[in-house]
Amino acid sequence: MNPLHKQTLKSLLWTVAYTILLLSTITTFLPITICLLMIPVMALAVLETPLRFILFVLPAFIIAYLLAGSLSPVVLILGLFFLPAGIVMGSLHKKRKSARTVITAGTVALLFEMLICLVIATLSGYKVIGGFREMSKTYLDTIQPLLQGVMSGDAEKAFIDTMIEMIPTLLIMMSIFWAFVTHGLGRVFLSMSGTEVSRLRPLREWMLPRSFVWIYLLVLLFNMFVSTEGKSVLGAMVTNLYPLLLFAFAIQAVSFFFFLTHTTNKGKALPVLSIIALIFLPPAVFVYSFIGLFDVTFGLRDRFRKNK
Fold first, then answer.
1. What's the pLDDT score for residue 226?
2. In 3D, which of 67, 52, 84 has the Cα closest to residue 21?
3. φ/ψ of residue 217, rounded to 5
4. pLDDT confidence of 24, banded at 50, 70, 90?
5. pLDDT 10s digits, 122-174
6. HEC states along 9-58?
7. Which spans are transmembrane here (predicted)?
8. pTM of the model
9. Separation CA 120–CA 125 (nearest Å)
10. How many other C-beta atoms are found inside a 10 Å radius of the C-beta of residue 290?
11. What's the mean pLDDT in 267-296?
């Protein structure tokens, strides 16, 4: 087959996949669809020129919009929201940038779009914080029978207030997750079709900068000994930085477990079990974060290499 025809066929398949994903945004598959929506965009941005990219993406929007009926605005809004970040990631992959650069750029693009959406919503008269508070209260009221009176009225209010303060953390975590999924699955699918893009370094080689240790310790001290209640800027910064750093060092610990298994060639189940524990046992994140902290601070990997 002619190379141009082969590439066109690939792009057509991505267009079909994108159309299906856009239509699935109005179904119960929405939580899954949101995680996958940027993948066809990124792939088409890698495969095609800007003009041909438009020619493949536009029909997907038109078909999905027409078939969605009264829910077509939902399709349009979600599709347009994830479009720029997908283009950014695809364009950088096309320029052979590193996977780390691509994921960082995708994360920043998503955060910027979220910020714009919040500004537009606020200027339109929608009370974002009030809406989030009401949504959280409705959710807690729904699961109240499961809590069996564990959470009182004051505790419920404090929990909701904390969640509101942590909105920046939630937005950052969502953006990082979406960018990682888009890069990871997109790279696999592109590779299967014969198109190679940059990949992340193996998890066992991941290492946080030493500067993160000092930031983590400062935030930890503030979190332990300084009251972060109220509406102070410092309190908001600590409230949001602490869980982010906690998670970052927990991932560092998982990376260390992978390194340990690779270096010693023993305990091959350890990395997998560590990930399972991190997902299903949330308190494990505190233990993991200290392991990750020791790994970065004291160079545990260098010690294992020397011993070996």
1. 65
2. 67
3. -65, -40
4. very high
5. 888 877 777 777 877 776 677 666 555 556 666 777 777 778 888 889 999 99
6. HHHHHHHHHHHHHHHHHHCCCHHHHHHHCHHHHHHHHHHCCHHHHHHHHH
7. 12-39, 104-126, 166-190, 211-228, 240-260, 272-294
8. 0.87
9. 9
10. 13
11. 88
Length reported for the chain: 308
Q: How far apart are the first and last CA of the chain?
A: 53
